[in-house]
Design goal:
Layout: H1 2-9, E1 17-29, E2 31-38, E3 46-59, E4 62-67, E5 73-86, H2 88-91, E6 99-104, E7 108-112, E8 134-138, E9 141-149, H3 154-157, E10 162-175, E11 181-186, E12 189-201, H4 230-251
Length: 258
């Protein structure tokens, strides 16, 4: 407290530490999403550290099994989505994994009997969606999140331009002890967010501009006409009466005597 008061007395604004977070969102089915972020402007202060967070959400989808083996099979499966973050702008390597997160179910026990006559090794052209040799797992709503410190790449975050982070979402499946069982997947829906957090010391970015003034109403309601007060009405009536008398007087013909 004393240090702050001394700094203010000397006319010096104390340097403050702060956190600036930038967030971008993605959604769809399994695939690749390109997200753009602003760099940290050196005029805002000194960048102390940077973290990168991936929040991943997986919803639905179906994992199906059709056993083509001569013996029954059983085991545990896990189903959901897995995400990765890459950025050639940050690392110089488009394939270097910066952050990964998994949104999946826990272990789910599945059992299927021996093949019931629709045997096929590989492929799905004869995949059967019924029978004792068929089983399925319907995906639910799963979440996963992970944060990594990427301060080692801080130089890439400095500047007045932008950089791109690639978010890749894949279907996540593990299945144990299923022998010749074929798998057929209806993909899950994925969504999530990527957060870049700048921990810095300095004045920080300027405050956001105020909201613009609202546009005028293109169809304003008509304003009511002013109603004169009683005294004004009386004065106007007398004036109009005098003007009428004068007009009538002027219009009377002037007759010359004989």
């Amino acid at each position: 407290m004393m240090a702050c008061l001394t700094a203010l007395a000397m006319g010096v604004v104390p340097v403050r530490g702060a956190l600036l977070t930038l967030t971008e969102y993605f959604s769809g089915v399994s695939g690749i999403f390109f997200l753009e972020f602003n760099q940290f402007n050196p005029a805002w202060g000194v960048l102390n550290s940077v973290t990168l967070t991936l929040n991943l959400y997986s919803d639905g989808g179906v994992l199906r099994f059709d056993n083509d083996g001569t013996l029954g099979a059983s085991g545990n499966v896990r189903f959901g989505s897995q995400g990765f973050l890459y950025s050639e702008d940050i690392t110089g390597d488009s394939e270097l994994d910066l952050v990964n997160a998994i949104a999946r179910s826990g272990n789910i026990a599945i059992s299927v009997s021996a093949d019931d006559g629709d045997a096929e090794v590989g492929g799905t052209s004869n995949f059967s969606f019924s029978g004792s040799d068929y089983a399925q797992v319907i995906g639910g709503k799963y979440t996963g999140s992970r944060t990594e410190d990427v301060t080692d790449y801080a130089d890439a975050f400095y500047g007045t331009a932008t950089f791109t982070v690639t978010a890749e979402a894949l279907q996540y499946v593990t299945a144990s002890a299923f022998g010749g069982a074929q798998q057929f997947i209806d993909p899950s829906t994925v969504s999530g967010s990527v957060i870049v957090a700048y921990n810095y010391s300095g004045s920080g970015p300027p405050p956001p501009a105020p909201d613009p003034e609202p546009d005028p109403d293109p169809n304003p309601d008509p304003q009511p006409s002013a109603v004169p007060e009683p005294s004004t009405m009386l004065l106007m009536s007398m004036t109009m009466f005098l003007l009428r008398v004068l007009r009538v007087h002027r219009r009377k013909p002037h007759v010359q005597p004989a």
